[in-house]
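Researcher: I'm preparing a figure for a lab meeting and need a structural model of a single chain. I don't have an experimental structure, so a prediction will have to do for now. The sequence is pasted below. Please return the structure as tokens so I can convert it later.
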Amino acid sequence: MGKLNDLSAAGTAVWLDFVDRKFLEAGGLETLVKEDSLTGVTSNPSIFEKAMGHGDAYDATLAAFDKENPGAATIDRYEHLAIQDIKAAAETLKPVYDRLAGKDGYVSLEVSPYIADDTDATIAEAGKLWHAVDRENLMIKIPGTLAGGPAISATIAKGINVNVTLLFALDAYVRVAEAYAAGLEERVRQGQPIDRIASVASFFVSRIDAVIDKEIDRRVAENDPEAETLKGLRGKVAIANAKMAYQWFLDFEKSDRWQALAAKGAQPQRLLWASTGVKDKAYPDTLYVDTLIGRDTVNTMPPATMDAFRERGTVAETLTADVEEARRVLAEAERLGLDLNGVTDTLVEQGVASFAKAFDDLLGSIAAKQPATA
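Model: Understood. Here is the structure written out token by token.
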């Protein structure tokens, strides 16, 4: 047993924010499942761009696909590669899924970032990817944009597991949590079972501090009269924001609306902490794992963060600790004009744009691998 195993035992599931063909073929994922209690995998356009856009690990698969599908569109060539990786990860995680009766053991695949603001297109693509992968332990990633809310409800109502991504603000989280409940309620109305449907709400953490801390540093450098108070908020706003989201989750869990669904076997939509790699080297590299531990949560970590936590992480129930201090931090941030709401709105837009840029680069790399001509 190690610290990642202890983290899982404390209620925070260990997921890997990384997919790569060579890693999968070398048994790296299987090792993490066996040795570190890993129970899930997440992917996104940036991860696939790093995996597919560099090196030759995918070349043979792509050449075989091109031979069988001459003239295939670049997007179809990409999806073929991605779906193979997702299927392989899903197979590795299937024993976990079976052992936990569908409560974990998931791998996530994201809809195109190009359609983040198109509800109907998101619903259609979620269904297409779900059927293409054809694994019950798949989650389709849908961004928590305004258009994403109704897409989440409709996708859940179809019996498709959903990972809601790009969440930063509490009000956005509340909206998608209610969308999940609405999707389950629609299935109940249809007489469909809801006990094997799963969802997570992915709250991005470190990006908030990266923006807030930069503003704090700017104001301190300009000798702001509140400089000392501002410095005291560095590295604390994102964690306080996450703790408030978890408090809302705990309250919603007690509501009549959720209790009615739970009575029919509904699984809670777990909060998932994403963007947990530390961007400021002044902070401990396990900061966004150590401080966000609690039941019915997930932490999806890039490999470096996972390695760091395995070596020097600290396991304690921290999500429900110092809640009043978290409220104070957010109140001070508001009083000092740090504009958390504005920051989170901007981060959603930037997140979609960043994934779209990564997707552009990814498709460009695949397009550059021209099919062999006879």
